[in-house]
Amino acid sequence: MFDAITSDPALLVLLIIVAGGLGVAFGPKGGLLGAGLDRTELENGRAGEATVLEVRDTAIRIDKRPVLQLLLEVHIPGRAPYQARVSKRLPPHSSTATWGPGLRVQVMVDPMKPQRVVITGFAMAAPASPPSPPVDPVRAMEDLKRMADGGLITEREYEAKKAEILGRL
Fold first, then answer.
1. In what order do the strands lie in the sheet with 46-62?
2. Where are the alpha helices (DSSP H) in the chain?
3. Whose CA is closest to 91, among 34, 25, 168, 166?
4. Separation CA 98–CA 90 (nearest Å)
5. Cβ(11)–Cβ(36) under 8 Å?
6. 86-104 per-position pLDDT tens digit
7. Residues of the chain with pLDDT under 70
8. CA 156 to chain CA mean position, Å
9. Among candidate residues 168, 102, 96, the one with its CA nearest the CA of residue 137
10. Given this model, what pLDDT does residue 165 score?
11. 64, 146, 75, 149: which is closest to 105 by C-alpha?
């Protein structure tokens, strides 16, 4: 069988192209799928956060899911922010609308090659602080008067703040 393949140049070229394509998609560096590349960063990488600056559809589909090219602004503790490009296959149940500019994501970065960035998840927004209780204008005026009487603020500051408090009524 091997002799038949090597004796037909067209078949040999086709075999090389197919094998090369499989190597690109599934090879040791992960190719389009990025499996091998991601493993290195995930094991030895530095954690950080990134903001999506730009999103482009590459027109490549893997399992009917689009592969996007993202321009990220990467923030790693102890290092100045920098930009990196990342290809990302959309996860299941995700849409391209989710991956817009301004989205914050968690990343792992190869410390030796900072352009090698892997997105590990979405960055969690800081919990919203509870709303401040409504300010009691009478109490605010009393506090303001005590500060003025104690010499903590000037007469001009007292009058300005008093006008502000009365303006909220």
1. 82-89, 65-75, 46-62, 104-109, 117-122
2. 2-7, 9-26, 35-44, 137-149, 155-167
3. 34
4. 10
5. no
6. 988 887 777 777 788 888 9
7. 1-42, 125-134
8. 47
9. 168
10. 83
11. 75
- pLDDT value at residue 13: 52
Angle at 37 between CA 31 and CA 38, to 5 degrees: 120
User: Which token pair is 64?
Assistant: 């009917």
Q: Is the dihedral of CA 29, 79, 82, 73 positive or negative?
A: positive
Helix axes 137-149, 155-167, angle to 10 degrees: 180
The pTM of the whole model exceeds 0.90: no
In the chain, the largest separation of any two C-alpha atoms, in whole Å, equals: 103
Residue type, position 24, single letter: V
Half-sphere exposure of 128 (CA within 13 A, CB side): 3
Quick one: how many helices (H) and strands (E) in the chain? 5, 5
Distance in angstroms (rounded) separating the CA atoms of residues 137 and 135: 6
